[in-house]
Design brief:
This protein has 453 residues and is mainly α. The protein has one domain: Sodium/glucose cotransporter (Up-down Bundle). Helices cover 74% and strands 1% of the residues. Strands 1-2 form a two-stranded antiparallel ribbon. The radius of gyration is 21 Å and the shape is globular.
């Protein structure tokens, strides 16, 4: 076997081993759902970083940089901006949260709004899980290690298995290890790439290169509206915060993660810009991250492990979060033993569905942003209003969620398929309708201030 194969074998065995070890450490429902709410600073920072810097973020940044140059740095720095905003409310989110975001929505708006959220979030997040599998399959198939379909099944089965075995206990441990691998892989690739292209003539980062005809200030605005805000309110991000030991740990972890993401955004954009002819054009399902032509075998193995870590650390969090939400929708209470068993049935079902989607859809960035647009239009304003204790129309919260989500989803699809600003206008309309239904009182009876806990 080659060096790369040995490294990958060790990686997959390590992840599976963490799942098996965590299986025997789970002593309660709380352990499985939120790791007993005992996450420390390094664990929460590691899992936040690994969840955010997923395969879609890494390959999406590189993909965008090859089209828009240094303007692609906005993709991940906008995520960092959202985290800095989240840091302000992180202690309150930690205090208000139990297991899932829909449970918070129930406390704000009642059971109907909760059920609406519990149906819509897994639907949107199924695409996010599939995107991670797509990224992992592109990595393995592009290097000729396995076919695209075989790679998709391998990645999907491994992260589904260790998530199923150990739940949040497994995820916090595996994500911390994966965060270290991701950082090591990106830094090593960046350093070797700079050395390899020393003296080459390529665009340098400057204020004038941050916008161009392929990425305008308007594109940044809509990236902030549909992407950055999902780091202020997001079921996967909140599930990390719910695991934190207390509000101080939650806030510090969010800030530290935001700071880590900024240099990673720079390094990934640099790698995309300097890709040159490293990208194999013949294989549309292949490896799209540059660097294979100049890396020694050990570094290439580390790079592949880093990419797979990025894939699995985002996929496992999203898989468990979606499964918990569906289990709560089915049983009505996650503290029941019935819910625990239901969650363990839903996890492999969601994992298999995501793999099947990944086998049919191979575009990363568009699929990722479409799913996030749906979520942002539905939930950003309602959740922020609930946390802030604004005076809202609670009876129309479910209508605001449905209307906002569907309209912004339509807007994102239109913007990707039809020239012009029609899609962007639909996105703004969706956010406006969401706010209108939620914040404009129709009767004195329906207007009620959400208690600030």
């Amino acid at each position: 076997m080659t060096v790369i194969t040995w490294i990958l074998l060790a990686y997959f065995l390590l992840m599976t081993g963490i799942g098996i070890y965590s299986f025997f450490r789970v002593k309660s429902i709380s352990d499985y759902y939120i790791s007993g709410k005992q996450g420390n600073l390094w664990q929460i920072t590691g899992t936040l970083f690994a969840t955010i810097i997923g395969g879609s973020a890494i390959l999406g940044t590189v993909e965008l940089s090859q089209k828009a140059g240094w303007a692609a740095v906005w993709f991940l720095t906008s995520a960092s901006a959202g985290l800095f905003v989240l840091a302000i409310i992180a202690p309150k989110v930690s205090r208000l949260g139990h297991y899932t975001l829909p449970e918070m929505i129930r406390n704000f708006y009642g059971r109907r709004a909760e059920r609406t959220a519990a149906f819509m979030i897994p639907f949107a997040w199924l695409g996010i899980i599939a995107v991670q599998i797509i990224a992992g399959a592109k990595v393995l198939s592009g290097l000729g290690i396995m076919s695209y379909s075989g790679s998709a099944w391998l990645c999907g089965v491994v992260f589904t298995l260790y998530t199923l075995l150990g739940g949040q206990k497994s995820i916090l441990k595996s994500d911390f290890v994966q965060a270290l691998i991701i950082l090591a892989g990106v830094v090593v690739l960046f350093v070797l790439r700079r050395k390899a292209c020393a003296g080459d003539n390529f665009p340098q980062l400057s204020p004038s290169t941050l916008f161009n005809e392929d990425f305008s200030a308007m594109d940044l605005f809509f990236l902030l509206v549909t992407y950055s805000v999902t780091f202020v309110v997001g079921p996967d991000i909140y599930s990390r915060i719910f695991c934190a030991r207390d509000g101080k740990v939650a806030r510090k972890s969010v800030i530290l993660t935001a700071l880590l993401i900024i240099p990673v955004a720079y390094m990934l954009t640099f790698l995309g810009i300097t890709a040159g002819n490293d990208i194999p054009p013949a294989n549309e399902n292949g490896f799209i991250l540059p660097g294979t032509s100049f890396l020694p075998p050990w570094a290439l193995g580390l790079l592949v492990a880093a990419l797979l870590s990025a894939v699995m650390s985002s996929a496992d969090t999203t898989l468990l979060t979606s499964s918990l939400i569906l289990a709560e929708l089915v049983t009505g209470n996650l503290d029941k033993k019935e819910s625990f068993n239901t969650t363990r049935v839903i996890i492999p079902v969601m994992g298999c569905l995501s793999i099947l989607i990944a086998l049919k859809v191979t575009s990363i960035l568009n699929a990722f942003l479409i799913s996030l647009s749906f979520f942002s239009g539905a939930f950003i304003i309602p959740v922020i209003a609930g946390i802030a204790g604004w005076k809202v129309n609670r009876h129309l919260a479910y209508a605001a969620i449905i209307t906002g989500g569907i309209t912004t989803l339509a807007g994102k699809i239109v913007s990707n398929t039809v020239p012009g600003n029609g899609g962007n206008l639909l996105i703004l309309l969706g956010l406006g309708l969401n706010a209108f239904l939620l914040l404009i009182p129709f009767t004195q009876k329906s207007q009620k201030k959400i208690p600030s806990t």
